[in-house]
Amino acid sequence: MWTLLLAAASQVELRSIVLVLAASSTAAIVSRLHPRIVVPAVVVEVLLGILIGPQVLHIAPLNQYLVFLSDVGLAFLFFFAGLEVVEQHVPRSSLQRATGGWVISIVIGLVAGYALHAAGVDGEGWLLGIAVATTALGTLVPILSDARLLPTDLGAAVLGTGVAGEFWPIVVISIFLTGVYGAATEVILLFAFGGVVALAAVVTLRTRPPRLLRVLQETVHTTGQAAVRLSVLLLAALVLLTRAVGFDYVLGAFAAGLVTGLALDSPEGKEVQVRLEGIGFGFVIPIYFVVTGMTFDVDGLLTPSGLGLALLFLALMFVVRGASAVLWLRELGARETASLAFFGATQLPLVVAVVSIGTGRHAISSTVGAALIGAGMITVLVFPILGTRITASREAVEAEQLRPAREF
Question: Phi/psi at 123 (nearest 5 deg)?
Fold first, then answer.
């Protein structure tokens, strides 16, 4: 890949690629500089993209190579979303309740989306509704782990909410963005595609020739990396299949993540997953977010109407996804349900992806997209902190109640 870039790219195009890689590397370091204040790397990546892009310093013009790498990054983003769904081992009961909660969220989101569209907001109502009905599971998992919340009932509720907030938006996006066939035909094709994915999963889990397994295990620590290559092949093949059928390729990428997650769901598979994460999160996914920043409509956001719209979307994100937390009220109690509402309303990666796909299809304006992304940035910076603080304050109250009374 790099040989082709060096041979075909001009000096200006190569400089843009180097600057994007520099922004990607800087974001990984800056986001972890302070031991107590950890900023999600995706936020820093978008901000640095804005800085080097045409609306601020204008030192890194967008080119065809960056667009290609950005598209590959988007595919890997959805691939890892599918991988996370399998990796978290969320109980079926939690998934069922979380799915019911997402139905509540999407109904509220669609009502709000179509109301905004009718009021003159330049975006399709269904797209606005889906954009505010997602959850950033990948952002939440390390936060929950650091706060030691993963093994708790609240942790299970957040994981279920996050899985539903990633899986169902991707499915709905793929159907709505197709626009090639009628709705009934698209649903039939979706089920057919699901059957192909299910068949691939069954073959992956049950057909394990000893020789192939030996090759996969032996090449994990060598230059062969057969398991990594097969995973990337599956990603490319399912992306190709979804494009051939007429669905958006993000569905194929997500399905490839599901199948790969099932295949790697073992202690040995963790080694392969680490190497896949090196390709995705170490290379192409950060490029996608930096490029998103380069195309970010700063001028549209930094206006009274743009900032007002961003605040409105921020409120909608909390209301739409926070509403799903009511289904956990009896099990978690009022305080932890409030915490779940903030965790569930934490968004950004899928919001960026929805905006990127929507603007590419002319279904949403750049100004509205910038407001959505701006609101998403605030959610990942603020909502997890609020969710953790609410839970921590509850634990402090309980500890105080259990403390023996002082003797006088």
Answer: -165, 145
Contacts of 137 by beta carbon, 8 Å cutoff, 6+ apart = 81, 84, 88, 159, 162, 163, 165, 166
In a domain, 251, yes or no: yes
The token duo for 275 is 């190497």
- For residue 281, how many other CB atoms are within 10 A of its CB? 17
**Interior angle at CA 62, CA 295 and CA 253, nearest 5:** 70
For 106, the domain range is 2-400
d(CA 380, CA 134): 12
Q: Write down the mean pLDDT value for the chain.
A: 84
Whether residue 150 is predicted with pLDDT greater than 70 in this model: the reply is yes
Asked if residue 405 is part of any domain, the answer here is: no
Tens of pLDDT, residues 224-255: 788 889 889 999 998 998 888 777 788 889 88
Distances (CA, A) of 164 to 102, 106, 134, 161, 395: 6, 11, 8, 5, 28
CB of 289 closer than 8 Å to CB of 295: no
| CATH for 279 | 1.20.1530.20
CA-wise closest residue to 169 among 126, 117, 232? 126
Q: In Å, how far from its chain's centre is CA 73?
A: 12
- Helix/strand/coil percentages in the chain, nearest 5: 80, 0, 20
Write the burial class of residue 92 (CB in 10 Å: 0-12 exposed, 13-18 middle, 19+ buried).
Answer: exposed
DSSP structure string for 92-150:
HHHHHHHHHHHHHHHHHHHHHHHHHHHTT-SB-HHHHHHHTS---HHHHHHHHHHTT-T
Count of structural domains, the chain: 1
Tokens read off for 61: 């013009």
In a domain, 407, yes or no: no
13-22, 163-172, 337-346, 392-401: the lowest-pLDDT one: 392-401
- Tens digit of each residue's pLDDT (9 = 90 or more) over 330-372: 999 999 999 999 999 999 888 998 898 888 888 899 999 999 9
Residue 197 CA to residue 205 CA, distance in Å, equals 12
Residue 406 domain flag: no
